[in-house]
Fold this protein.
Amino acid sequence: MAKKTIADIDVKGKKVFMRVDFNVPLDEECNVTNDRRIQMALPTIKLALEKGARLILASHLGRPKGERDDKFSLAPAAKRLGELIGQDVKMAPDCIGPEVEAMANQLKDGEVMVLENVRFHKGETKNDAEFSKQLAGVAELYVNDAFGSAHREHASMYGVPSVLGPGKRVCGFLIEKELQYLDQALSNPTKPFVAVLGGAKVSDKISVIENLLGKVDRILIGGGMAYTFFKAQGYEVGNSICEEDKLEVASNLLSSAKTKGCELVLPVDNVVTTQIKSDAEHTINTGNIEADWMGVDIGPETRKLFADKLADAKTIVWNGPMGVFETPPFDAGTKAVAEAIAVATDSGAISVIGGGDSAAAVAELELEDRMSHISTGGGASLEFLEGKKFACLEILDDKE
Ligand code: ADP
Ligand code: MG
């Protein structure tokens, strides 16, 4: 069921509590070094202000330990928001309390304030009932546009909409778009549906593979986790990253794929090196990997094979780089797969990229515009791919 959005409700003159993800990186002088997350929330913020809401923005930033810690203040994010919307943004001294409520009550239509970091209070991550009530404070409506936190039942994500009750809680455009793409890919994909999975560890992605086995036509596996599958098939993997305690899981996934008629494609060649350094000796390897050598990227034949397996795809989900892409030349496999996904998208496929490192790789390659959707939530998108339900989203009002 689709969720109601801020476009569906009347916010004029109302105090709107909007949970955003302003968890932006800061430098030592507390300057925002990357404002992508603020930018992503702008469509919802701008519409609320245009419609005359009295906007109260809430977010977490970093991991303060439930108490005030100035290096995690949201003030720099509020300042940056002000620059982006060309309007005065008031910064609250805290996220709860009489002073904050007074500030909220003084807001005029179309004005905006930012609450201080909700994680300055222990009640946030505990979804504490009393803290949720205080946070909901003077708010009349609730909007959630923080997809990156959707898998966390914290007070600002779950407690506040619980306090406000049905008919008063909707999502913003960022969450609407995430749900549209992720949900459509998983529950109603146009076939062939191909998943590309990589990254360092199998253990991070077991549930994703299990959930996708019944849904996709093919799974292409690259990255460090391929070596656990190789070892499970009886190959030597040398120094490659390999989870000995997951060999049985890998074998079971291989046979489960067969039973379910899902094609599970492993690399046919690998780039191997003796150390993860740009200038380290490296070569292409097939079959057993010798002691002292480690696999750090998919090889050229695998790049061709994966591109071929992606060519006819109509739905693509990608999570996890194909190699140690932070260290060129071991980024070549990830580049090749990103390019193949972009080409398939050009010819009509829906492509959804999840995972922080995969999104970073796509950004670095300047392929963002050629993908259908790049998820803003690393952990959240992974849990979505695992088939988990998100209570923080379920609680929001359904479209009529
Ligand atoms: P995402 O953030 O997109 O979900 P992950 O966090 O699961 O991706 O994985 C990214 C990490 O996996 C990167 O730091 C990358 O260096 C690492 N990785 C990929 N291939 C290998 C490999 N063959 N050996 C070691 N690490 C690898
Ligand atoms: Mg990662």
